[in-house]
Amino acid sequence: MFKGKTILVTGGTGSIGSALVKRLLREDPKVIRIYSRDEGKHFELQNELPQDANVRFLIGDVRDRERLRFAMHGVDIVFHCAAMKHVPYCEYNPFEAIKTNVQGTQNLIDISLEEDVEIFVNVSTDKATQPFSTMGASKLLAERLVSAANYYKGKRRTIFTSVRFGNVIGTRGSIFDLLIRKIRDKEPLPITHPGMTRFFMPIEKAIELILESAKMAQGGEIFVLKMRSVTLGELFEAFIEVFAPLFGYKKDEIKIVEIGPRPGEKFHETLISPEESEWTLETDDLFIIQTPVEIENFEFKRKRYNGINGKTRFEFYTSENAERMSKEELKEYLESLAKSLLKVQ
Question: How much is the pTM?
Answer without folding.
Answer: 0.88
